[in-house]
Amino acid sequence: MISYFAIYSIVKFRLKEFAFEYHYTILAPIINNLLFVLIFSTIDRYYSLSINNISFIEFLIPGLIIMIVAQESYDNSSASLINSKQIGSFNDFLMAPLSRVEILVSYILSQIIIGIFLGVINFFILSFFVDFNQVSIFLFLYYIILVIIFFSSLGCIIGFLAFNWDTQSSFSNFFVIPLNFLSGTFFSINALPDNLKVIFLYNPYYYIVNSFRNSFYYDFEFKLFQNIIIFIFVFSAFILAVFVFYKGFRLIK
Predict the structure, then answer these.
(1) Which residues contact 203 (CB under 8 A, 6 or more apart)?
(2) Buried-exposed string 152-177: b where 16+ CB fall within 10 A, e elsewhere
(3) pLDDT per residue as tens digits for the range 179-205
(4) Looking at the predicted structure, is the pLDDT value of residue 37 above 80?
């Protein structure tokens, strides 16, 4: 039987933890995005860049929003688990009347709330630089939630299996950051040579970033088959996280 109160308690704890550490969970991501926008807006004014008949800043801002949500979804979930194991508080979760899968669900649910908050607040702040009049709220939230589930699942896997910060940061540096940077966040694949485009065309995460960006414009076309592939891609990460938590591999050092 699902312990809804226990899930609610963990979600509440995670949200309090997030709010308490606001200086690096909220302020730091916002400042990072503002720095990106200020730097690239200066470059854009000097070189008059444009992509697909829109200014470079209009192209860039949706990518920055989804990038910061992805990065924080991984960092928050993995860091919280590793920290709780190091100080011993994770044992309290294990002794509570709930399964490890319910712990995973609690972390992902709390991260969805946190990620949506970060995405929305970044959108409103960065809207001062660009006027977006055609944003689809439903698609905005839909793709944000998919990104959160994918990266928080990865974060929970790493946080569950790792016992030190080196593993957490290594996975971020060698997988999460390159995946974000090389998925069309800062550039259009139309500018790449044909032999390099193949790398992006077979990258499901590229289509999430691209679809999220296109949802900011009125001519967005929702492609069913493409979104089925995206959903399978995200769901596979979640199932892997469920499997790792269910098996409890290397739970206690």
Answers:
(1) 182, 183
(2) bbbbbbbbbbbeeeeebbebbeeebe
(3) 888 887 887 777 777 777 777 778 888
(4) yes
